[in-house]
Each structure stands twice: as structure tokens, then as C-alpha cells.
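agent> Task received from the user: take the single chain below, predict its 3D structure, and emit C-alpha cells. No templates, no multimer pairing.
agent> Plan: (1) validate residues, (2) run structure prediction, (3) serialize to C-alpha cells, (4) report one or two observations.
agent> Step 1 OK, no nonstandard residues flagged.
tool_call: predict_structure(input=
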Amino acid sequence: MGKGDRAAFEELYRRTAPWLAVRLRRRCADEQIVAEVMQETYLAVWRAADAFAGSAVGGTAVGWLWTIAARRLVDAFRRRAHHAEPPPAAAPRDTAPGAEDEALAARVDGDVGDALRRLAPELRQVLQATVLDGMTVRETSVLLGLPEGTVKTRARRARIAMRKALT
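)
tool_result: status=success, residues=167
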């Protein structure tokens, strides 16, 4: 793809677009924003594919893709905040855990996984954005529609709860 191979790009899109759309929808219920972010993300990936050096630093293409998408989502929230009301947050779900939750559970198991699953949803949400998705406090604030101070407080509370659960 870094050399302009359109078939490689189409294969990346085919393999990752459904996953990325689901992940974005879990953070934003506005389908228009999700569609814009998807388009902006894949355009950025196509333009910068030759600069991807993930394998040299241990990163993956999917991780790189999510980093771009998460930042584009934050940018979209900022743009909308200047022109209208904030987009609706993703609706809470009482359904079975999604693929992302199952992957997290499989990746984080044992005492750490148990402690993480026992966290209050609002604390787990902040940990997911800041630790697992690698977002800054400001990006997490925009993404979750919370003041930065609230994000910091929840992150601190989550760390304390995790520490207590693991000692």
C-alpha cells in the first residue's frame, strides 16, 4: 500500500472497515460523524501509508489505523462543537459484550482482568480511552463529553480502585 498498491488498500479496507465502524459507533451515535471519520481516516491512511513504520517499532497497522480514527473523531467533535450542539453520546447498551470487550477480556485476564471488569463503567471508559486507546486527557475529554478535570479525577479513581483490587 505504501507504494500505491490500490489492491492492498482495498484489502486493508475490507478487513478493517467493519471493525472500525463498530468501534467508532460505540463512541459516537451520530452516523454522519462516523461516516465522515471513516472517510477521513482511510484517506489519511492512503496518503501516509508509505510513512507507516509500525513493524520497526512493534506497532500494528490496526493500531495505527485506530490512532488516526480516534484523533479524527476528536477533531470531528471539536468541529461540531463550534457549529452546533455536541453529537449524541453512544447509547448505553444492555446487550452482550461486543467484540472489543471480548478482545479486551482475552488480552487482560487473571487478577487484572477481574479488577478491570469490576470497575464502574465510567471509570473503565476513561481507562479504555487513555490507557488502551492512548488518548490524551484533552482528547478523552472531547471524546466522552466530559470536562478535563473529570477525566483526570476518574482516571485517578480508576488507578486507586485497580491498586486496591490487586493488593
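agent> Step 4: summary for the user.
The two ends are 47 Å apart (CA to CA).
agent> Done.
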